């Protein structure tokens, strides 16, 4: 499948159709808030097994994608160095990972299904959750169609964290209780991802005169503002979920 994948067609399709990501985003917002309204007077569904299978599928997908993308990244880092790993566009067309990069981009539509489980189970839907899903979908499609520099790190780190995150969701869905520090570690890794994203954007600005880097102000601005908003929101989430609750427990 990897060898037979036509990356030229994939990139061409994305360049013609990436605006569909906005349609998916709008449909998603209407569906989840409409679903919340319809569920207002109903009892939430348990959906333990469907959620476990859903999370397991995304965990396995992320694990395979992590293996393939890191294989390419390690090769680049050990041969031509860090700067090239950030700037190069080979990542999008490399035989090792090109299929998984494309599938990663498409998977951002599939991941919108996470919120459907939250709505049907009548769990709390926070702004960070749906905002993150919407913006990541649009950004991923934009990043792929432009073959933006820095996308290699964005995709590789995201797949790595999602492997741990969806594995955690799978175990929780089947009923196992896990130590609090695991959830904290996953959120901290997401905060670290956002900080790395901001740093990479700053590096791209410094390297904009270098012909090796594909630099566009719209692309870097989009990336920087997205990562900055994520960093603020995830730090706020970590503070409210773990630091404030710990202080309350100590106070009690």
TrEMBL record:
Q: Does Membrane appear among the keywords?
A: yes
Q: Which reaction is the catalytic activity of this chain?
A: a very-long-chain acyl-CoA + malonyl-CoA + H(+) = a very-long-chain 3-oxoacyl-CoA + CO2 + CoA
- Provide GO CC annotations from the record: endoplasmic reticulum membrane
Q: Which UniProt keywords apply?
A: Fatty acid biosynthesis, Fatty acid metabolism, Lipid biosynthesis, Lipid metabolism, Membrane, Transferase, Transmembrane, Transmembrane helix
- Asked whether the UniProt record includes Transmembrane helix among its keywords, one would answer yes
Q: Which GO terms describe its molecular function?
A: fatty acid elongase activity
Subcellular location per the Swiss-Prot or TrEMBL entry? Membrane
EC number(s) per entry: 2.3.1.199
GO terms classed as biological process: fatty acid elongation, monounsaturated fatty acid; fatty acid elongation, polyunsaturated fatty acid; fatty acid elongation, saturated fatty acid; sphingolipid biosynthetic process; very long-chain fatty acid biosynthetic process
Membrane topology note: Multi-pass membrane protein
User: What is the designated name of this protein?
Assistant: Elongation of very long chain fatty acids protein
